């Protein structure tokens, strides 16, 4: 469904991505692993059109987004969701207004109609209706993640990107968030790309795994492949060794 | 020999200093150009559907109404000090009679718009920049786009429109209060006759004196809100970046106000 070929991205005169190829099938859950600062978040933001690319193609259902009309492109982009690393909730709005935001402002639905839908979406991620009029700042990290997830799911996306959904959460909360992701993605047959450093998450949600290093995907495989791989880069990452090929040329 | 070396050193320091100023000026010009493009895009988005009326009303209140106390106070004191100082000057050649005319012309043509705009850039420019920069560094701006909402329409246009509409109104109030401040001090301290003073105030005042001041204010209002939005939208690197964006917004909009003031005064008043 999503097809990326030879993607190059330069930010502030620094080459961040240099030739990324990536495919995502309908309903597939793809994991991207990689060290901090290799451009995993940049990759997702480029797909979403939040950052400019130098060259390469991003196509959805065979339509190259560069060649699509603005209307077509908007239509495709409106069916991509993203859960940001820090949740990125709007801190001047209440929880239900956050969840209903895309409906009210993006789809121009009257707030009275959007509110019941928002409450239902909150219940799907196991948030109590009573919390609807709280402000995001009064919530724990795990709760904020759930609100962020509800806010994305309410727009019925075809694919969702998760940027480190469990980083900074305790193991139990991480487990809950992982379950919610599996439930949302598998249950609704949504394609997803998840960035994570959490190998528990990987085992729970992955269909396929990619490893990003120095602007390229250097390894792709299944869960089984991940456990048995002899690739020296992958072994260093999985065994968390401080020295090895990943860290060789670092200053 | 030593003397020559010393001279070289001084020369180099001077050149470095000038280069520093030049670089600053160039980056100022660059950000002016980029923010002009930013303004164009904002206006284009703002004038097309959907319109976010609630957002616009909220900004009219936040930016306009709540700026009233600070701008009102500063303009009263400006009028008071202006009357006191020019009384001293005029009494040296027995021209006290010109005081009311001077106060009203200074306030409406120059001091009202400029001082209000500088207070506006401190209050409104800083608020806008800090708010938007925080949204930027916490990825809330990215999130807006992924929720099918145009950032220009939802965030920037309401603020810039509010700047355009409210600063002229605020300046009109500031004009009245400034003249009132001068009147108070003239009548109660400098011994002017109240009726005479008011008569003198309106005697030589033309429509253009006030309206051109308000036109200036409209430009200042847009510039200040624009600088806040533009600097906020380009913030990066966490808390330090928010601080930098806020400072730049206030500094650049203050400089821009002074420069525009010169430009508009030349165009409007000295045709
Ligand atoms: N908006 C941006 N502008 C300029 N440089 C950026 C931007 N976002 C990220 N970068 C740079 O791109 C590199 C990759 O960042 P990122 O994708 O966040 O890494 P990670 O893989 O940890 O998510 C970093 O060096 C970062 O400094
Ligand atoms: Mg990241």
Number of strands of chain A: 10
**Strand sequence of the main sheet of chain A, in spatial order?**
6-7-8-3-9-10
Instruction: Kindly estimate the percentage of residues of chain A that lie in beta strands according to DSSP.
Output: 15-25%
The largest sheet of chain A is: 6 strands, mixed
Quickly count the helices of chain B: 9
SS-based class of chain B: mainly alpha
Uncertain ranges of chain B: none
Shape assignment of chain B: globular
The rounded distance between the terminal residues' Cα atoms of chain B is 57 Å
Q: Compute the gyration radius of chain A: what is it? A: 19 Å
Keywords for this entry:
heterodimer; A: 251 residues; alpha/beta; four-stranded antiparallel sheet; 9 helices; B: 271 residues; mainly alpha; binds adenosine-5'-diphosphate
Describe the structure.
The complex is a heterodimer of chains A (251) and B (271). In chain A, 37% of the residues lie in helices and 24% in strands. With 251 residues, chain A is α/β, with parallel strands linked by helices. Chain A has a 6-stranded mixed β-sheet with strand order 6-7-8-3-9-10, with helices on both faces. Chain A has a 4-stranded antiparallel β-sheet with strand order 2-1-4-5, with helices on one face. In chain A, helix 4 crosses helix 5 (141-153). The radius of gyration of chain A is 19 Å and the shape is globular. The mean pLDDT of chain A is 89. By secondary structure, chain B is mainly α. Chain B has one domain. Chain B has 9 helices and no strands. In chain B, helix 8 (207-233) packs antiparallel against helix 9 (238-269). The N and C termini of chain B lie far apart (57 Å). The model of chain B has no long low-confidence stretch (mean pLDDT 91). Chain A binds chain B through residues 45, 48-50, 74, 77-78, 80-82, 84-86, 88-91, 101-102, 105-108, 151-152, 155, and chain B through 50, 52, 135, 138-140, 142-143, 145-149, 154. The complex binds adenosine-5'-diphosphate (ADP) and magnesium ion (MG).
